[in-house]
Amino acid sequence: MIKGYFYVIIFIIYNQIAMKKLEFSITIDASPEQVWDIIIGKDTYSQWTAPFAPGSSAETDWKKGSKALFLDGKGHGMVSKIVESIRGKFLSIQHLGEVKDGIEDPTTYQGEEWGDALENYFLKEVDGKTEWRVVMDMNEQYAQYMEKTWPIALEKVKELAERH
Fold first, then answer.
1. Model confidence over 73-84: pLDDT tens digits?
2. What is the mean pLDDT of residues 2-17?
3. Would the pLDDT of 135 be above 70?
4. Taking the CB of residue 57, how many other CB atoms lie within 10 A of it?
5. CA–CA separation, 83 vs 96, rounded Å?
6. How far, in whole angstroms, is CA 59 from its chain's centroid?
7. Are 40 and 56 spatial neighbours (Cβ–Cβ below 8 Å)?
8. What is the three-class DSSP state of 136?
9. 68-111: per-residue pLDDT in tens?
10. Would you call 49 helix, strand, or coil by DSSP?
11. Domains in the chain, start-ordered, CATH in brackets?
């Protein structure tokens, strides 16, 4: 099995394999704003995304319309766009292309099946806690990997948010 979130996505895109919608959620004993800060925090992003790709990082200002680079620490990853960003409520990311050996190609995924797929984060206050829901499209072949890995990442966000 291909290791790492970025490699899975790149493999899927090149093979134009049918996608299915995946959804993950967790309840966190912290405010939506605290959870948001953990999700996009410069110091915390790499901690909670490590189950997908150790050494991962995000280079973006997280503002609507901004470019985002999601990197694996080895010069590979994705070029994306922040479609929507409402602090403490909603984040939508569209993956546009890949970064390979440090070189960005934001057109890699144009016209391909993945091109319109979004990775969406919903945060909602429920009884003084936050429900964080992740909805994304993923190849059925790798759904099991995501179903195993996303809960680990969600638990890490919970741990970080509840500790602060």
1. 888 888 899 999
2. 52
3. yes
4. 16
5. 11
6. 13
7. no
8. strand
9. 999 998 888 888 999 999 999 999 998 888 888 888 887 766 55
10. helix
11. 5-10+20-163 (3.30.530.20)
pLDDT at 32: 98
pLDDT of residue 2: 43
Instruction: Please say whether the beta carbons of 69 and 77 come within 8 A.
Output: yes
Q: What is the residue whose two structure tokens read 């759904």?
A: 143
Neighbours of 86 (CB within 10 A): 11
Q: What CA–CA distance (Å, rounded) separates 17 from 150? A: 21
Distance CA 138, CA 142 (A): 7
Q: Residue written as tokens 């409520």?
A: 89
Instruction: Write out 112-135 in H/E/C secondary structure.
Output: CHHHHCEEEEEEEEECCEEEEEEE
Residue 95 parent element (H or E): strand 90-100
**What is the Cα–Cα distance from 5 to 22, expressed in whole angstroms?**
14
Which residues, in sequence order, are CB contacts of 10 under 8 Å at separation 6+?
76, 78, 98
